Amino acid sequence: MEQDNRQTPEKEIKNPEILENGINKELPTIDFSTLNTEEIIRQIQKLVNDYPVTAIKEIMEGLPEIFEAQYKKEYEEALAIFTSDGDKPEDFEYKNDSRDRFNALYKLYKDKKTAIARQTEAEREENLKIKLGIIEELKALVQKEEALDKTFQEFRDLQERWRNTGLVPQGQLNGLLETYHHHVENFYNYIKINKELRDLDLKRNLDAKIALCEEAEKLLENNDIAGAFKQLQLLHSQWKEIGPIPKEQKEPLWERFKNATGQINEKYHHFFESLKQEQEDNLKVKEEICEKAAAIAAGEYHSISEWNTATQNIIDLQEEWKHSGTIPQKERNKIYKRFRSSCDTFFDRKREFYKNLAVEQEKNLELKIKLCEKVEAIKDSTEWKTTTDKIISYQKEWKKIGPAPKKYSNKVWARFRAACDTFFNNKNAHFKDIDAEQEKNLALKKAIIEEARQFVLSGNSEEDVEKLKGFQTRWAEIGFVPIKFKDSIQEEFRNIINEWFDKLNLDEFDRDLERFRAKLSSLDAGENKEYKIINEREKLVSKIKQLETDVNTWENNIGFIAKSNKSQGLINELNSKIEKTRQKLALLQEKLKALDSLI
């Protein structure tokens, strides 16, 4: 009996375990480098539960390294948030069991892989023994002398048992098939079967191969090109198992089957090339992202705001990375290591910056405590002029000291301010009876109020602003008024000036700033005016630091939130908060400049 020994256009079966188990479910395409640790664990859980280990082997390769890099990133970001409040890195406790859960899942995969490999090898060895036994029985058939129909039925039974026996070790396959077909040929050549039975067998084989041709031709209509290609490998395996057909049909039928095979292979080739080109394009995008990340990681940043800007740029690149598509498998680990290395370098440097900042803030705290002690030592003094000069000098010294750790900043400032307030309150009480000059000042300020009330806008905003500032300057040059009129007359003056500013064609930013300047100009002149200004300045600086901290926290939070439909609303809300806070910061900075110009 003849057989077709031509090479099929593709390797027989790329994943025999998958085909053997009847697994046709398409594996998902997952870029694990874009996922956080929880998402990686969730995806691995699905793969291990829903697919045979032989199907996910390629996906699982390199996952421990990717997971460890992501775990390190999340650890460092959590540490950065912890230390940004002034806490020491050695006090940080990272409560996250994701590494243990990942290792347990990966061990489960490795154990399954080992068990299936052993089971598969044992089954194939057993199948080899069975098929070798079938070949021996085929050899024995030619020696039997019994009714042809009985011998032929035994032959048919042996063929059926052969087809129903599973795969054998790959290295034994070709030799085993050659031996099997050789003895099938011997059966037909040396056993004198009547022509009718032989023709019946040839027709049966012919019908089976025609059916395979029809199945292959139907695959041409399948839009799932990868699925069609896998199914084609099964058809080729079945073709090899079918016995001979009539000689006149052998070549045409093989050409028909080969033609359908060629078209499917060509479609698969174009599909694969298209996918390959898309992945190559994605690789270029990721390389550009790596270059940008490397530049940011190597940049020089000297302030919190500069580090915040750079952090947002890194977060934006990480977001862009997530949406830059898949790349060739052989490049994935290398390009991800490159990108991760730049991100790690950046966050290592940022953590070092905050570590040094924390040390500096501790030194500032010590300096501020010493100033508190100095003021507390003289707060009850009645040497009004000398003590006032000393306290004002301490206030100037305080201004030059940088920020203290956040958790102590408000407390130490309250302590310093309380000591200063004690002295100046005592001083004000001492001079409360000196009111003749204050009554005169009250009259002068009332005159300015009346003049400001009668003021008429010229229509020229710049000129009008200058005139209103003139009122403020004159007001500031006048000394104290009686304490019982102080607040009411200042509020009346500010309200009139603010009403005029409101009527000017100024935007909200400038209007708010001019109101603040009006407030400053209404402060009483005197020995403790500078103290009041410094006091106001401390409040502004505290607000600015708090807002900067808020912006930094929100920007870091955005980096932790996975990109999804459910989280997009939260990301938009945080971005809106950041934008509004930056506007507030710009106004506070201008107010700070106005304060500093008075000192």
Descriptive notes:
The chain has 599 residues and is an all-alpha fold. It has a domain at 16-222 and 229-264. It contains 20 helices and no strands. It has helices at residues 16-20, 37-50, 57-60, 63-84, 98-141, 148-164, 170-190, 195-219, 225-241, 247-298, 304-322, 329-378, 384-400, 406-430, 436-453, 461-477, 483-503, 508-521, 529-560, 565-596. Helix 16 runs parallel beside helix 18 (508-521). The longest helix has 52 residues, at 247-298. The radius of gyration is 43 Å and the shape is elongated.
Which features characterize this protein?
single chain; 599 residues; mainly alpha
Which structural class is indicated by helix and strand composition?
Answer: mainly alpha
The outline comes out as: elongated
Largest sheet: none
| Quaternary structure | single chain
Fraction in beta strands: under 5%
SS field, number of helical segments? 20
Low-confidence stretches: 1-24
Gap between N and C termini: 110 Å
Give the gist of this structure.
The protein has 599 residues and is an all-alpha fold.
Topology:
Layout: H1 16-20, H2 37-50, H3 57-60, H4 63-84, H5 98-141, H6 148-164, H7 170-190, H8 195-219, H9 225-241, H10 247-298, H11 304-322, H12 329-378, H13 384-400, H14 406-430, H15 436-453, H16 461-477, H17 483-503, H18 508-521, H19 529-560, H20 565-596
